[in-house]
Amino acid sequence: MRQRILDLNMLLTLVTIADTGTMTAAAERLSYTQSTVSMQLNRLEAALGVPLHERDGRRIRFTAEGQKLVATPERCWNSTAKPLTTFSNARFPGI
């Protein structure tokens, strides 16, 4: 059976919505349109088969499932930042 993976852009959009609190602010930060951010969140919910958010006026409130999912990519991105900072000052011969 083939393993399914989630689109990293959809996960980045999810985390950015969590950071900014609104789809409009997330769209501005990502240089997307607001409709693209909304579409990506809806596609992510469809791919997982669970609701990840609820509307609270203009703000987004994540469900319990959404909160769990937001925490996962943040940990992954934080762990990938370490090698980048480790090697950012390194000099590689021939490059």
Structure characteristics:
two-stranded antiparallel ribbon, 95 residues, Arc Repressor Mutant, subunit A, mainly alpha, single chain, 4 helices, globular
What distance separates the N and C termini? Answer: 41 Å
Helix content: 55-70%
**CATH homologous superfamily grouping:** Winged helix-like DNA-binding domain superfamily/Winged helix DNA-binding domain
How many E-type strands?
A: 2
What does this structure look like?
The protein has four helices and two strands; from the N terminus they run αααββα. A two-stranded antiparallel ribbon has the order 1-2. The chain has a single domain, classed as Arc Repressor Mutant, subunit A. The radius of gyration is 16 Å and the shape is globular. Strand 1 (53-56) and strand 2 form a beta hairpin. Helix 1 (8-20) crosses helix 2 and helix 1 (8-20) crosses helix 3. The chain is 63% helix and 8% strand. The model has no long low-confidence stretch (mean pLDDT 84). It has 95 residues and is mainly alpha-helical.
